[in-house]
Design goal:
There is one protein chain. Among the domains are: about 150 residues, Rossmann fold (3-Layer(aba) Sandwich), CATH 3.40.50; about 130 residues, Argininosuccinate synthetase, chain A, domain 2 (Alpha-Beta Complex). By secondary structure, the protein is α/β, with parallel strands linked by helices. Helices cover about 45% and strands about 20% of the residues. It contains 14 helices and 14 strands. A hairpin with a 5-residue loop joins strand 11 and strand 12. The strands form three sheets. A five-stranded parallel beta sheet has the order 3-2-1-4-5, sandwiched between helices. A five-stranded antiparallel beta sheet has the order 10-9-8-13-14. A four-stranded antiparallel beta sheet has the order 6-7-12-11, with no helix packed on it. The longest helix is centred in the first third of the chain and has 20 residues.
Length: about 400
């Protein structure tokens, strides 16, 4: 018997029709959990819609600060970028939402949780792996894997039969997900990998054609790998990301067009806008280049790839991710300083890197030879390094004779 179900509710088409569908098919009370991760929605309107469509209770969770400090910034410190492009905006938000959804279910005495993810995407995995890690006793209901609705049109028809307003949904050709870190776009013309995005597809950033005709410089400060200031002004996480989003967006920074490999084995095409995140990733990389020792920097590149894969595959609540966080935290102890970037019509260039922990030494790197590096030492070093090559060359010469 499923008496109460907690639904991760956004107010979009899918979750709006899931409320009456759950009541019809499970005869349960539906508690709608609304997670505010900075998507910019009118939360009061979303709550009102949830009640209007049949929710017995609505719980709003303000997760904006936790999203940045507990999920986004650790991924930034790790250098996590999936398939060289995707800054993991949606991937990082899902485990956080699922965590609080589970919390609501346990507080409310619910026996099940539900989500509006399709059976073809990554998000179903991200939600459900989190449920299993945090409360495996809860039943999981995934309507897209149960109902007979096959298309967006089917969902629109169902909504109209149940008196749920869908005029705006019929006008939308894209599926979008927005939070403080990014805005994603799928569907419409993007389903053809050979088609360029429409000008109207982009919602957050200016096009390079519309960006200012002069460069803008921005100085970003870090403490132990965490961004703490912009232009020398100390800011909390929320204010800092919002400000960098504004700066990046007006300079056409952060547009990504990506054909990516989903966990379920499908290649999908999406466009992402991550203006502030693009600036932070660029600045953080430059500061690490200045401060990380060579072998540590090179090994961390491998960790970065694995960390991104774990996040993308929904494996946030795993011992491996927690262990990698421990490694990353060690690497970030001396990643403090500032990086100044130049922004111009979608391009990001480095102007200045500064840190008291810098390993860059002009007396070693300059063409003017200093007393700390004796060039004669290089001869013996190179001969020892080349010993295997000389041995192999000699062996081949003997065989040839």
């Amino acid at each position: 018997m499923t008496d109460k179900v907690v639904l991760a509710y956004s107010g979009g088409l899918d979750t709006s029709i899931i409320v009456p569908w759950l009541k019809e098919n499970y005869g349960c009370n539906v508690i709608a959990m609304v997670a505010d991760v900075g998507q910019g929605d009118d939360i009061e309107a979303v709550v009102e819609k949830a009640y209007r469509t049949g929710a017995s209770k609505v719980v709003v969770e303000d997760l904006r600060k936790e999203f940045l400090t507990g999920y986004v910034f650790p991924a930034l410190q790790a250098g996590a970028v999936y398939e060289h492009k995707y800054l993991l905006g949606t991937s990082l938000a899902r485990p956080l939402i699922a965590k609080h959804q589970v919390g609501v279910a346990l507080r409310e005495g619910a026996t099940a949780v539900a989500h509006g993810c399709t059976g073809k995407g990554n998000d179903q995995v991200r939600f459900e792996l989190a449920y299993q890690a945090l409360a495996p006793e809860l039943k999981v209901i995934a309507p897209w894997r149960e109902w007979r609705l096959k298309s967006r049109e089917d969902c629109l028809d169902y909504a109209e039969r149940h008196g749920i307003p869908v005029a705006a949904s019929r006008e939308k050709i894209h599926s979008r997900d927005r939070n403080l870190w990014h805005l994603s776009h799928e569907g419409g013309e993007l389903e053809d990998a050979g088609s360029a995005p429409l000008d109207s597809t982009w919602q957050m950033t200016r096009s390079p054609k519309e960006a200012p005709d002069q460069e803008e410089q921005v100085k970003i400060g870090f403490e132990k790998g965490v961004p703490v200031s912009v232009g020398g002004m100390k800011l909390d996480a929320l204010s800092l990301v919002e400000l960098l989003n504004e700066i990046g967006a007006r300079n056409a920074i952060g547009r990504i067009d990506l054909v990516e490999n989903r966990l379920v084995g499908i290649k999908s095409r999406g466009c992402y806008e991550t203006p502030g995140g693009t600036l932070l990733v660029a600045a953080h990389r430059e500061l690490e280049a200045l401060c990380l020792e060579r072998e540590l920097a090179h090994f961390k590149q491998q960790v970065s790839l694995k960390y991104a894969e774990l996040v993308y595959f929904g494996q946030w609540f795993t011992p491996l991710r927690e262990a990698l966080d421990g490694f990353v935290a060690t690497t970030q102890q001396e990643i403090s300083g500032s990086v100044t970037l130049s922004l111009y019509k979608g391009n990001v260039a480095v102007v200045r890197r500064e840190s008291e922990y810098s390993l860059y030494r002009t007396d070693l790197s300059s063409f003017t030879m200093g007393e700390n590096y004796d060039q004669k030492d290089a001869a013996g070093f190179i001969r020892i390094l080349g010993l295997p090559s000389r041995t192999r060359a000699g062996q081949r010469a003997e065989v040839a004779r």
